Amino acid sequence: MESFSDLGAILLMQGFNGLSVFSVLLLMALGLALIFGQMGVINMAHGEFLAVGAYTTYLFSELTQQYAPGLMPYYFFFAIVAAFVVTFALGWLAEWLMIRHLYRRPLDTLLATWGLSLVIQQALRSIFGPREVSPTLPDWLMGSVQPLEGVDIPINGLFVMSITLVLTCGLLLAMFRSTWGLHVRATVQNRTMSGAVGIDTKRVDRLTFALGCGIAGIAGAAFTTIGSTGPTSGSLYIVDTFLTVVFGGAASLLGTIASAFVIAQTQSVSEFFMTGSMAKVLTLSAVVVILMLRPRGLFSIKVRK
């Protein structure tokens, strides 16, 4: 009985670890679902916006520690806002300078954003150096809670999950209960007709791209609570993020949420029984098989061509 109890506790903790991975993966995938699913832009630099958000948080940590140490318990909330603002502005600029000239040319957007990712990586390497860095987290983010005997849940994981929940609900409300969301859905359904009825589709595209990049910046701020940050940290997540969006259904936010949960939990629980590499192979194989049965993903939607 005791061995079964220990196994249950381990599986419960693995499940919670899967929720932590799910939270970061979902934050990344939500931004990419807007850019790729709603706009059809293959943004290979999406991971680098996560890195920019993470470095912004690190910079806030260093500046607060040096010039206003009394604000250390509160700086992280301002760092999250700053990470969003910086990556939103960077995404707005990238769309205006480059992406707006490449719509309906997916291969060109792939190559252009891949080049942008290399530029951002080198800029981060030149500014912050090649070594990985970590911000000094507030004391209230440290430690763990113990709901059951033998089960320790990190507080930083709970915090990341809270951010993810708030942001996901906010994005769903914005998509289905706001004028901007109505314009986005109309543009996806029929761009020509949306322009004919007075919707500024170019402004919708720019705002949507910038918002997707801003969400990636928030994911970067959340990422700093569970891992260190380097110039190439974002590129480690880009494949899993694209996989999540495609698996859920490219234009479905609900599908993105479901696929992020399935992928994170499958990988986390299977890592208990096998190596990390084999767990990733198992997860990828399962996703490929399901996509063979449902090529449009779990939650595909009908759009006008």
Automatic annotation (TrEMBL):
Keywords linked to the UniProt accession: Amino-acid transport, Cell membrane, Membrane, Transmembrane, Transmembrane helix, Transport
Molecular function per GO: transmembrane transporter activity
GO cellular component: plasma membrane
Compartment(s) where it occurs, according to its Swiss-Prot or TrEMBL record: Cell membrane
Membrane-protein topology: Multi-pass membrane protein
InterPro entries membership: ABC_transp_permease (IPR001851), ABC_UrtB_bac (IPR017779), BCAA_transport_permease (IPR052157)
A GO BP entry: amino acid transport
Entries under Pfam families matching the protein: BPD_transp_2
Primary location class: membrane
NCBIfam families linked: urea_trans_UrtB
PANTHER family in the record: ABC TRANSPORTER PERMEASE PROTEIN, BRANCHED-CHAIN AMINO ACID TRANSPORT SYSTEM PERMEASE PROTEIN LIVH
Family membership: Belongs to the binding-protein-dependent transport system permease family. LivHM subfamily.
Name of the protein in its database record: Branched chain amino acid ABC transporter permease
Record gene name: livH_8
